[in-house]
Amino acid sequence: MKDAETIPDMMQELGQNAKAAAQVLAYAPATAKTRALEAAADAVWADRDAIIVANQKDLAFGREKGLSDAMMDRLLLDEPRIQGIVDGLRAVAAQPDPVGAVLAEWDRPTGLHIKRVRTPLGVIGVIYESRPNVTADAGALCLKSGNAVILRGGSESFHSSGAIHACLVAGLRGAGLPEDAIQRVPTRDRAAVSTLLTMTDYVDVIVPRGGKGLVGLVQREARVPVFAHLEGIVHIYIDKAADPQKTLDVVLNAKTRRTGICGAAECLLVHKDALALGQSVIDALIAAGVEVRAGAGLQGSGPATEADWGTEYLDSIIAARVVDDLDAAIDHIRRYSSSHTDAIMTEDDAAASRFFERVDSAILMRNASTQFADGGEFGMGAEIGIATGKMHARGPVGAEQLTSFKYIVEGDGTTRA
Fold it and tell me: How does DSSP classify residue 226?
């Protein structure tokens, strides 16, 4: 681990190396990036035993810190999850290269021909917690989009992230690309995060992926632009026209499949005319081991308080509340949502249309589990996070969302009158 006094120098070196690598990646052939990702996938699978050994060290560290079961689940790597990392790398590799894609082109009466084309952002800093697979996702997406990246994983996943990062570097090396294209901050010291947030000479954008505390810190301290991934305060509204079986299946999956991810449902809103259905869903959740903090008119594990509305539990806990109608549900979501993902269960097209029109979250769903709020499930191969802001990127941030554009203007000795 680096001493605190050496961290600014270390981070400056990472920044300089990343900027130099980004200049090469900006025009790197698509075939080379694809080869690097395929080789990285091969390396991850070949080194899976070593990655699991590294992960065991992280799990021991997490237990010592007293991490919750849900957080330990986020941290865990086993062979099926490593296969998921490999599949994600291959999926990103197989995607069309976004760099240089023509977004629009037109001719002007002056004789100019103008094109708007995708271009990399440059250097991206990714700060994330717990989940070591983000190392692969972020590295792959940044490379695919022609960006260099500086990865700063959470202290809990330090060893796992290091093992995965080594595989990414091996892929770069095998494809003849700069190894500094994907760098990792080699210390748990939080001073490295503070330094990264102010590296305006080297870093073009910061992507935080984690809980409210991390995102709040980044937004407060960053001098570099930020793609904010705020907490996932995810609502499911059970409309009076909801199908009972669909609702039961979707809500159980949305809450219990994996409780520690940002797409997990955290609040259930029940139309007053769907009270029986809402109660049966709550009973099923309790039977599945979920603590239900219920508002008036519903029987749960215990009563809900004001603090339960607008809480991201990331655990086997959900809040539940009766609302008078669809508009009351929309009002509740507007007040407490983090603008991440919100869903409606209904067979009424008009109700769904009103919900989609009036709820302003990055992802809106109808009759589908909120656990699908994921770039991989959206066909992006992987994601670097779910952006909840409204500038540049919103929703799952994949390779395309990690590009900007430039204008290419061609004339033939053309002058302006």
Answer: B
Cβ 201 vs Cβ 56: under 8 Å:
no
DSSP secondary structure string for all residues of 84-121: HHHHHHHHHHHSPP-TT-EEEEEE-TTS-EEEEEEEE-
Indicate the CATH number for domain 234-372: 3.40.309.10
Of 159, 259, 260, the closest CA to residue 211 belongs to 260
- Separation CA 72–CA 315 (nearest Å): 11
Is residue 2 a contact partner of residue 14, using CB atoms and an 8 Å limit?
A: no
How far apart are the C-alpha atoms of 147 and 165, rounded to whole Å?
A: 16
Q: Is the pLDDT of residue 381 over 80?
A: no
Q: Which structure tokens are listed for 347?
A: 């067979």
Helices (H), 176-243: 191-196, 212-221
> Taking a C-beta distance cutoff of 8 angstroms, is the pair 362, 340 a contact?
yes
Topology match between the domains 4-229+400-410 and 234-372? no
pLDDT score at 288 = 98
* CATH class, 4-229+400-410 region: alpha beta
Break the chain into its structural domains and give their ranges. Answer: 4-229+400-410, 234-372
pTM: 0.83
Contacts of 321 (CB under 8 A, 6+ apart): 267, 268, 269, 270, 294, 295, 298, 304, 309, 332
Pairing of strands 386-387, 395-396: antiparallel
Geometric angle at alpha carbon 208, from 257 and 86, rounded to 5°: 55
Q: What is the pLDDT of residues 15-43, one digit of tens each?
A: 999 999 999 999 999 999 999 999 999 99
- How many CA atoms lie within 13 Å of 41's alpha carbon, on the beta-carbon side? 20
